[in-house]
Amino acid sequence: MTEFRMPAEWSSHEGCLMAWPTREDLWGSVLAEVKEEYANVARAIAAFEPVTMVAPPGFGEDARALCGVGEGVTVIELPLDDSWFRDSAPLFVLDGDGNRAGVDFRFNAWGRKHHPFDSDDRISGLLLEHLGVDRIPSGMILEGGAITVDGEGTLITTEQCLLHPNRNPGMNRDQIEAELKSRLGVTKVVWLPYGGLLDTETDGHVDGVCAFAAPGTVVISLPSDPDHPDYARMRANRAVLEASTDARGRRLEIIEVPQTAFADLADGEIEVSYLNYYVANGGVVVPVAGVPQDEEALAVIATAYPGRKVVGVRALAIAFGGGGVHCITQQVPAARTTV
């Protein structure tokens, strides 16, 4: 049996997948603004690697008009319910020779929070067919934002999300861990207790609180303000990481991002997580809020990814919908490369 492993996000990419936002019941009054933000993210990533934007049938021209022609963004049309490809698109894996496949996990709209979601449950298989990539099915519900991997056998996730009863009520922790190891080729799973307290949309995805930046190195959210709702929770996560080793027995170097950002939008206060960034070929595209602490966060992230250009893109409307730049993207690793 061929053995596959999910590569780290900093490995070489063939390109990036995104999905065009059209769900009016989610975006409401910020729909026009979030389309602009999605287009800005797509163009920022396209400066580093090609972007394929998937629009629902009939919305392709809308996406093309805002993303631009000849900007490195190709628009195609496929049936969609929502626009969060980190969670509904396939998770790509490579074998030892660099041959590529895609793991098609089930998707239930973060515990059936939005309806319908049947097209998003099927989109992974349609994307693999479009790309000509072999499909590896899994009956487990999993969103890509719930995990981060180092490409060398280690996966980090949160108990808050993966053990939530609205995902896989028929599976216990050991069974979930076994499926992660089987499908993604990891050999060690590190379980953090918490995602973000305010992250009720995804039930605490790891991509808002922690990310591998290199083998043996993680970037974590560690708010410095004692009044921040995650002040104690993120320190509990840090303690787990301090006590952990990766699949190769290394202690983890920890790089701290000392805050998230809060800004006003649509008559409410919105939290933007700097950790919810996308690592592209030669770059890192980071959600920002247009507030003074953006620059400090960008500088910290730049230290975690030496040699890559760090670009901030306003993502307040995306955060209003419950996510960030990482949530709306999915990397397609280059085939026939070393894992």
Summarize the structure.
The protein is of the alpha/beta class and 339 residues long.
Tell me what the structure shows.
- There is one protein chain.
- With 339 residues, this protein is of the alpha/beta class.
- It has one domain (4-333): L-arginine/glycine Amidinotransferase, Chain A (5-stranded Propeller), CATH 3.75.10.10.
- 28% of the residues lie in helices and 28% in strands.
- It is built from eleven helices and 19 strands.
- It has a four-stranded mixed beta sheet with strand order 1-5-6-7, sandwiched between helices. A four-stranded mixed beta sheet has the order 4-3-2-19.
- Strand 16 (278-280) and strand 17 form a beta hairpin.
Strand content: 25-35%
Assigned CATH class: Alpha Beta
Distance between the termini: 18 Å
CATH architecture assignment name: 5-stranded Propeller
Q: How helical, in percent, are the residues? A: 25-40%
- Number of strand segments: 19
Taken together, the total number of domains comes to 1
